[in-house]
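Fig. S4 source data, part A: sequence.
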Amino acid sequence: MATVLEFTSPADEFPLGTVFENLPGVTVELERLIPHGDLIVPYFWVRGAAAGDVEAAFQAHVGVADVELVDHVDGEYLMRAEWDSEYYGVLSALARANVVVLSGIGTKEGWQFEVRGEDHKSVSEFRAGCQEHGIPIEITAVHALLPLQGDGYELTTKQREALVSAHERGYFDSPRSTSLDEVAEAIGITQQSLSSRLRRGHRRLIDATLITD
């Protein structure tokens, strides 16, 4: 059974984390991280910075081979990173264990990750890789993916909570009966975390119901 692991890591332990030294008000959210051998090429969003500061801030970081600005929407900037294959960090440990990142959000306070392994063994391999290479992570939760309804509707418990709470409070109504901030406050998380959970929950439901191989 697929296993979800949640963990935190210090801000400067992730290759992108040193950006917070120059832009302390920035939030970085990983869009999608899928391991492919030892190579991971992720997209990520940046919020809380001026357009002219974003691209320059992500150049010349340890573990980063290249960063480019791809697009921007309403003050958020989509960027693409390629990693230095010689650098061993959290990404390398994830790739070698074939573990997928469901969510990764970083601020100057640190990183919060939610990752998924196909089984408990792959998650254990990731943890062992971090220990072996001295990568500091703090495990905050481990749980199995739960079906929402029937086969294939796999959501994490947090994604399900976010979707159900938003629905019950009228966030998906037209016009809306509540705001994203109000739903986030009701379940005790930040607006950014709620937005991420809703987006990833929607993606999982669409993959399960509308997308065919």
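Fig. S4 source data, part B ends here. The first strand starts at residue 3 and ends at 9.
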